[in-house]
Structures are given as structure tokens and as C-alpha cells.
Write a structure and sequence with these properties.
By secondary structure, the chain is α+β, with helices and mostly antiparallel strands. It has one domain. It contains two helices and seven strands. It has a seven-stranded mixed beta sheet. A hairpin with a 5-residue loop joins β1 and β2. The protein is globular, with a radius of gyration of 13 Å.
């Protein structure tokens, strides 16, 4: 992935399929933290949710999006849900984080793609 320096990203990680996923500073600060202030300072946990998820779902409304869920990394009994949108670029799929939030539930209608055993 090219075009921007690493300083413009909160994190970059490879998902379980080997595709690169980035979360840019603008999305993190202006969208995620603004809408979900409880995630301020939780960049490492968001990265971990993509790097070492408990569950991965295909989004029911957006087939080019996957939701990476990690239980209990920020608060007990709550999932950190990190939503990544994928597009084809430079010959490989690339992902960008579009939102992240805490939730107690799994969303009905999403398709389970992967489950940690």
C-alpha cells in the first residue's frame, strides 16, 4: 500500500487472509473517537481485533466489508467491533477501517466467515 506515510496511520496490520488493513488518523479521531469517545486511547486494541480476532463476519448490508470482533479487550462482556472495507488496489485486496465501536451483541444477518477455536 502506498501513497501516504506511516505517520498518517493509527495502525497497519495484515488480516488473517494476508490483506493489509489500515486505520488512518482522520477516521480514528474524526469518526471513531468522536462518535465513540470510550475508544480514545484504544488504538492498540483495535489493531489487535483485526490482527487476532475472535470472530470475523461479512457485513449484511455491505458485501465489501468485514467486521472483526474481539471480546473483552476494553470492557468485560463487550465486543470491540472493527469494520473494515476492502477494495482491490495494487493487485491485492486492501482494507481500511471505516468504524469501530463496543457492542454486547453479534449483529443478526451478518455472515460468519471465521471463528477462533
Amino acid at each position: 500500500m502506498s501513497g501516504q506515510s506511516n505517520a498518517e496511520y493509527v495502525f497497519e496490520v495484515q488480516d488473517n487472509d494476508g490483506d493489509y488493513v489500515r486505520c488512518d488518523v482522520k477516521t480514528w479521531k474524526r469518526k471513531i473517537v468522536r462518535e465513540h469517545p470510550e475508544l480514545a486511547g484504544c488504538e492498540a486494541q483495535a489493531r489487535q481485533a483485526v490482527d487476532e480476532p475472535d470472530l470475523i463476519f461479512r457485513d449484511r448490508d455491505y458485501p465489501d466489508r468485514r467486521a472483526f470482533l474481539k471480546l473483552g479487550t476494553i470492557r468485560p462482556n463487550l465486543y470491540l467491533r472493527v469494520v473494515v472495507e476492502y477494495s482491490l488496489g495494487e493487485g491485492t485486496f486492501q482494507g481500511r477501517v471505516v468504524t469501530a465501536f463496543l457492542t454486547p451483541d453479534l449483529r443478526e444477518g451478518d455472515t460468519l466467515l471465521w471463528l477462533r477455536h
